[in-house]
Design goal:
By secondary structure, the protein is an alpha+beta fold. It has four helices and nine strands.
Length: about 170
């Protein structure tokens, strides 16, 4: 995923738009593996501020994930707006050396930077829908597919007194 910023670099106040599409491979987050179900579509607006290139972008793709409640796989639509700063290494300030994408030439490979944006924006747990009821902790049935009555009669005797408690609104 390459971007050529030559047309923007030499023109203060100049801007350019880029529309990029590329296939990304699957990746492992340690406890969960995710895979891309669609190519990653990236749109960029690059603006020259005379000190750096300010980038406004959007990322769209679909990920195959596992629900943290019911353990079913599903397609997670991913959409993200982000901002980034690109600066040529010779012009970079001390702060920019740590945070900005450092450029050595006009053609920039941004695949790793886009992948970083995706990983940072992922949720802690994927949930297939807000209505997902998850798995029964007693019998393990998927409550979205099968009604389960295990928890209705199993009341911890230490908490039985709480069942008699009445709420006053």
């Amino acid at each position: 995923m390459k971007v050529n910023v030559a047309q923007v670099r030499n023109k203060e106040g100049g801007s350019a738009r880029f529309d990029l599409v590329e296939d990304f491979s699957s990746f492992d987050l340690g406890i969960e593996a995710l895979s891309f179900q669609a190519p990653v579509h990236v749109q960029l607006q690059v603006n020259n501020t005379s000190k750096a290139l300010l980038v406004h972008g959007t990322i769209h793709t679909d990920l195959k994930a596992t629900c943290g409640r019911c353990l079913e796989t599903f397609v997670y639509p991913f959409s993200l707006s982000f901002q980034d700063e690109w600066v040529f290494r010779t012009l970079a300030t001390e702060d920019q050396l740590e945070t900005a994408l450092l450029l050595d030439k006009d053609e920039v490979e941004i695949k790793d930077r886009i992948f970083e944006q995706i990983v940072l924006a992922l949720p802690m747990k994927f949930i297939c829908s807000a209505e997902c009821q998850g798995l029964c902790p007693t019998c393990g049935a998927n409550r979205n597919q099968t009604p389960c009555h295990c928890g209705e009669s199993n009341i911890d005797p230490r908490l039985a007194a709480l069942a008699k408690w009445q709420f006053n609104d």
